[in-house]
Amino acid sequence: MNSVKNKHYKMTTTLLIIYLIMLAWIILFKMQFSIQDLYQFTSFRSVNLVPFAGTAVYDGVIDISEIFYNILIFVLFGIYISILKPDWHFMKKMFPMAGVSLLFEVLQYIFVIGSSDITDFLGNTFGGIVGIAVYILFYKIFKTKTIKALNILAILGTMSIFILGLLLVFGVIRYGNFS
Fold it and tell me: Residues near 151 by Cβ (< 8 Å), separated by ≥ 6?
């Protein structure tokens, strides 16, 4: 691996680690800094195995924004996996994203910090698939500059998620029950 590729690989790996930490903070810890605050908002346990029903439905209407956020938040995961493992076939790239999403849903159930929902799992996994598609599109456009272009996009995406999280934590903006 030449030094430029190695530099981009290290940057992508670092961004992936930061992203996964932020993902855990958002999904598992509901953007809280204390366990007491976490349980104040989410001390319930439920499982929904019916897609697009249950937690994504409020007053009989599907909350498309919640599904959209679940998709959006996992797009970066698909991009990171595709950058780090460009030779993996599509299905092999899907397994880490689906696995992490499933892990988060199971951990929410085990630690009684929200609902475990098949819709979240499907949305997260689909978001990862969108990320893989973004990588493929960028590769067709940028060829050898794909990793550099996507690392720039990933830095902006990761920073946006981090800044949004800080704004939510410090009460500058408000968001409903994030699950």
Answer: 8, 11, 12, 15, 83
Closest alpha carbon to 32 in 168, 132, 139: 168
**Would you list the domain boundaries of the chain?**
3-169
Distance CA 2, CA 84 (A): 15
Q: Please report the DSSP string for 62-99 in residue order.
A: E-HHHHHHHHHHHHHHHHHHHHH-TTS-HHHHHHHHHH
4-60, pLDDT tens digit by residue? 678 778 888 998 998 999 888 888 876 665 555 555 555 567 777 777 776 656 666
What digits encode the pLDDT tens for the residues 136-178? Answer: 998 998 888 888 888 888 888 888 877 877 776 676 665 554 4
Kind plus residue range of the DSSP H or E element containing 141? helix 118-142
* H or E segment to which residue 37 belongs: helix 35-42
Q: 51 φ, ψ to 5°?
A: -60, 140
Q: What is the DSSP string of 146-173?
A: HHHHHHHHHHHHHHHHHHHHHHHHTTSS
> Count of CB atoms within 10 A of residue 69's CB?
17
**pTM, 2 dp:** 0.79
Per-residue tokens: 117: 């929902």
